[in-house]
């Protein structure tokens, strides 16, 4: 299973968010790929992720739901 994580937060909070996410995934032995932007995800030539975790406000990503490829599940964390 391919998992990608995107944190959309103020710059001062991103290191803390990444720490918590890294701790969670390492505790459960799951691999994930942090991404810096949605553009990075859509421009990648690799297959789309099975799960896209986005830390941020889900209302900001309403149009993103339409762009997600089939088979990719989208989950917002606030």
Q: How would you sum up this structure, described in words?
A:
It contains 3 helices and 4 strands, in the order βαβαβαβ. The protein has 78 residues and is α/β, with parallel strands linked by helices. Helix 3 (62-67) links the parallel strand 3 and strand 4 (73-77). The two termini are 23 Å apart. It has a 4-stranded parallel beta sheet with strand order 2-1-3-4. It has helices at 14-27, 38-43, 62-67, and strands at 3-7, 33-35, 51-55, 73-77.
List the helices and strands and how they pair.
Blueprint: E1 3-7, H1 14-27, E2 33-35, H2 38-43, E3 51-55, H3 62-67, E4 73-77
Query: What order do the SSEs take from the amino end to the carboxyl end, as H and E?
Result: EHEHEHE
How far do the termini sit from each other?
23 Å
Question: What is the arithmetic mean of pLDDT?
Answer: 84
> Which strand-content bin applies to the residues?
15-25%
Strand order of the main beta sheet, please?
2-1-3-4
Number of strands: 4
| Number of structural units classed as domains | 1
- Identify low-pLDDT runs: none
Any idea what the shape is?
globular
| Helix/strand/pairing category | alpha/beta
Subunit organisation of the chains: single chain
The Cα radius of gyration reads 12 Å
How many helical stretches?
3
Largest sheet: 4 strands, parallel
Fraction of helical residues: 25-40%
